[in-house]
């Protein structure tokens, strides 16, 4: 178990003291080759997150998740709630990609791309050190209790959390709507204001108080390591054969001694407060801070780098590491198959959605001329990027016709109808058929909906009629 370098007491969690009180972690940043790369990549992700709602693609935001309209725009393509197949394929592809990424590169997501790590380590903790000072000053403030610097830090954290919450809200309402709401009273849009306030308070609580406990306690990803990783997966590990026995002080002649000088810099810099020398642990997020800290010490004492570095469990234990193994072969094959199906379904997706239903309680009616009438409802949704005109025709049963050919009288619109991109129409009308088309009270007709862009959809629909035997 991870333990404190000073008291030697075992801990259940690295954020708990022996008496159960909170152990506040104030990691010392280690600036090295990996820290520089993580900082560049992390800030790229932050800028990308802030910019995406403002980037137009095909006249639409790069990402807009309109839950109220049940329309989801991703990089210029709009998906509806009815796209269950595409959604299922997308989620499955994402899961397999995560499995593959973890099997090959370990917890690279946690240390390099997870929003919790990126914002905490590259934004909130640097702001904290700028306001409160370094490791020693922060520890001193922990003992003093509430003070001016802590209050200033809370104010800055709250302001940054509010800004991030507004960006988060822009993903769901769009930047134009958000800009309008910001200039209006919260009472004009109370629900959106409550969402923004809730996200702000959640982020403020997370980055001010809960912090690394999100990774240690709340996030399930670390607990899945035993399933997602194998002994050949990439990890951040300590070379015990080279480092042990670890000792401080000057070298004594003929004394067995490893390269580790037991300086605890790897522990002091760890954002989750563990000792990497204790082996692979759930709390390790592979942030590489311990690598940069150890490399700097090795440089000073004239030893080669790599005492702590990227490795695998087999390599650390002196066994042969295999890159090609069953999961590294099967996951890419499965991922390629899912991507092929997803792209094929996306490319061949119809430019309109058509659904036909029977109104509640409706059976059939008889006209004075003896024809059988059935009420139907047709919903047409334009999924193309341009305005289209749609009309409906009844085909497939001899003698069947619409009460007004090509026209369905409806509540608020009618077919033929011209629909803009993403718009839909609900049409209601009657299908009139002669009695002889029914067999045992049933007759199946085909209703065709056509659009000016070449869209053609045929839907079978069952009519109800008198119980007669077709001759």
Give a description of the structure.
There is one protein chain. The chain is an alpha+beta fold and 471 residues long. Among the domains are: 33-82 and 114-211, no CATH class; 352-464, Immunoglobulins (Immunoglobulin-like, Sandwich). The chain has 15 helices and 16 strands. The protein has helices at 33-51, 84-105, 108-112, 115-132, 135-144, 148-173, 175-183, 190-210, 213-218, 225-228, 240-243, 265-268, 289-301, 313-316, 326-347, and strands at 56-57, 60-61, 63-66, 71-74, 77-80, 235-238, 308-311, 352-357, 365-366, 372-382, 388-395, 401-402, 417-419, 424-433, 442-451, 456-464. Strands 8, 9, 10, 12 and 14 form a 5-stranded antiparallel β-sheet that branches. Strands 13-11-15-16 form a 4-stranded antiparallel β-sheet, with no helix packed on it. A 3-stranded antiparallel β-sheet has the order 3-4-5. The radius of gyration is 32 Å and the shape is elongated. The termini are far apart.
